Amino acid sequence: MSVTRRHALVRGGALGVGIAFSGALSELFAGTAAAQQLGHSGYGPLRPDPNGLLDLPEGFRYRVLSREGDPLRSGEGPVPSNHDGMAALAGRRGKARVVHLVRNHENRANGRIGVPTVEGLTYDPAGKGGCTALTLDSRGAVLSERVGIAGTAVNCAGGPTPWHTWLTCEETEDKAGTSGYTKDHGFIFEVDPADPHRTGAVPLTAMGRFQHEAVAVDPRTGIVYETEDAFVQPFGLFYRFLPRKPLGGTGSLRAGGRLQAMRVPGLPDLSSVQEPGACFDGVEWVDVPDPLAAETPVRLQDFGRKGVTRAQKLEGCYWGDRCVYFVSSFARSAEGSAGDHFGQIWRYDPRDRSLTLVVVFGPDTDVQLPGESPDNICLAPSGGLMVCEDGNGAQHVYGVTRGGEVYTLARNRQNIGTPEEPEWGEFAGVAFSPDGATMYVNCYAPGTTFAVTGPWRR
Fold first, then answer.
1. DSSP structural state of residue 196
2. Highest taxon of the source (predicted)?
3. How many Å is the Cα radius of gyration of the chain?
4. Residue 430: left if φ>0, alpha if ψ -120 to 50, beta else—which one?
5. Rounded distance between C-alpha atoms, residue 263 and residue 238, angstroms
6. Mind giving me the DSSP string for 61-83?
7. pLDDT digits (tens, 9 = 90+) for 17-68
8. What is the mean pLDDT of residues 257-263?
9. In the predicted model, what is the mean pLDDT of the chain?
10. What pairs with residue 286 in β-bridges?
11. How many CB atoms lie within 10 A of CB 15?
């Protein structure tokens, strides 16, 4: 196992509470309970929201764009529940510039409010998951809201394409006959938010059938990177898909391609690495024997004597700075992982086939405090990364400056538990408008989509 120290290690304001990161990063991700102690960083302390929805720093405001149970503006039915991954894509309506928000709904077969079935957009009538699409004008007003795809299952995250569509991922491996489903699930689907009927409800089967979480597309090569969210053994894999028609535009991924899993020589489990800045050269990619998992789940298939590299809870995935970043939300040795942590961020550089651990949480982080289990991530307009928290206790959106200062940007105030045992829904789907002026983010439960404006450039 070859490990090189390419980056100097630095520990910033979060020293002592279980977070460390490697320096010299133009996009740096972090989030920890220490962020609440860094009143001088970021945008200042959070102000309690008198409406009890979303706490933000002074100078920031939010608008509720959409909320579960309200009527969809298309009249197709109610806004579905369980708001999850999301993207903000530039578009046009006539000569006017618009923003398309395409939003996942992580509904299972027993979901509260399923995505309404629409002719031509429904994969399996028994599935309650899917996507809805909102179109906003230049001032942020909602022009339309409609179903993007229906009849899918457990649509967790996904990722945008360079041609302005959304790849929505099913986080399940249920087959036809399970939970009442009439078709196999566990696929990626492409959604065109400007014209959903253009993409329809066609599974991209060559991209694999497994517990998908998120994807990121290399805009130079068209290679698609995919995470697998498996929190019990055998743990998930990190994949890449080599499309037969790279960068071919809407519908080109239907032409198929080759699915491969990552192998880091000498590193069977990412959780065994605890030192930020550790870098592994010579990353290999191994063909997946049966991407459709007709008989055996992909992560249980035979990858040869050398095997593949695994990680517990692979979740967020994002492309930036000519590299792909991906998240392992946590690892627990008691559940079979090689080590313990409350979050890692890895960076894969396809130019030299290197993998670097850029952020690690804990395990000395107090899990009862905010700042653990990172999930969705995205680049902030002024640099750094934004992260949605999916852990215990209060839930936050965190950020980090280019200088490495951790800060809180938002806190969910909506209690979905009881006064005696409060519980707050996770954040998901953080994304910025193409001009960087607005941050969009979902609250998972109760399903709410927020638009946040403020002094982002400060």
1. H
2. Bacteria
3. 21
4. beta
5. 9
6. EEEEEEETTSBPTTSSSBPPS-E
7. 334 444 333 333 333 333 333 334 578 899 999 999 999 999 999 999 999 9
8. 98
9. 86
10. 261
11. 11
Using an 8 Å Cβ cutoff, are 398 and 31 in contact?
A: yes
Which residue reads 């804990």 in tokens? 362
Q: Which two tokens stand for residue 197?
A: 């009927």
Q: Which two tokens stand for residue 44?
A: 């200042």
- Give pTM, 2 decimals: 0.90
Q: What is the DSSP letter of 394?
A: S
Residues comprising the chain, all counted? 458
Joined together, the tokens standing for residue 264 give 């880091």
What span, in angstroms and rounded, lies between the C-alpha atoms of 367 and 363? 9
First to last CA, the chain: 43
- 427 bridge partner residues: 443
pLDDT confidence of residue 376: 74
Residue 216, beta-bridge partner list? 225
Q: Max Cα separation, the chain? A: 59
- The rounded distance, in Å, linking the Cα atoms of 386 and 247 is 27
User: Which residues, including other chains, have CB under 8 Å from residue 237's CB and lie 6 or more apart?
Assistant: 228, 261, 262, 298, 299, 308, 309, 310, 314
CA 406 to CA 383: how far, in whole Å? 13
E strands along 236-373, which residues? 236-243, 257-263, 278-280, 284-287, 310-311, 314-320, 323-328, 344-349, 354-361
